[in-house]
Amino acid sequence: xxxxxxxxxxxxxxxxxxxxxxxxxxxxxxxxxxxxxxxxxxxxxxxxxxxxxxxxxxxxxxxxxxxxxxxxxxxxxxxxxxxxxxxxxxxxxxxxxxxxxxxxxxxxxxxxxxxxxxxxxxxxxxxxxxxxxxxxxxxxxxxxxxxxxxxxxxxxxxxxxxxxxxxxxxxxxxxxxxxxxxxxxxxxxxxxxxxxxxxxxxxxxxxxxxxxxxxxxxxxxxxxxxxxxxxxxxxxxxxxxxxxxxxxxxxxxxxxxxxxxxxxxxxxxxxxxx
Length: 274
Hints:
2 domains, 5-stranded mixed β-sheet, 5 strands, rod-shaped, 9 helices
């Protein structure tokens, strides 16, 4: 703003010098000089030019001063035109610099906007990935019901037990409650609880571990007020894998407890309501 006020004052002085000189000697006005002064004044009133090209405006002002003095001294037209030309070049350069800086700022703004949009997109993708992961985990934590040739079966994966442990994790409570609710609403249904293990350990160890896990599920259902007479349990160790024990994923699938309801009069869709 300080530059702007000074340039406006300088232009007024230049115009005044021209007016005084005209009154004193009454020569005809130099149109190119007047045009240059107007162009300078317009540039000096453009805040974008003032901000980004102050030096070019200074040079334009100096050239106009020289042109004004040459006109006042009645120097040759070539000398006046020379300074007017220099002033015009500096003014034009100042405008180009200002436009370039403005364009650069706009580009930076667009880049920032695009980066912000990209960040929002990445955040949205991350949220979706986490949501899908949570949903996958939730489904994994739910007892999986399926219809088999032996009857309806509920599968509890190994996420309800710590590795090489037979104690039910707290995360199993909701699933035990769901199965217990189903059994209370179907009082004639009895359950066979079958424990399974992967092939990581010795046969005897795996058999004992799968037995203890099946027993833990039975005890949890009894604690949920299911009569013990409706519950039997057995263990198969690593004898009945449902996946390849060569991979971690396969082993995880094989570590499970299955709850079988031998009768066929209840469909899986009914069990999933609980």
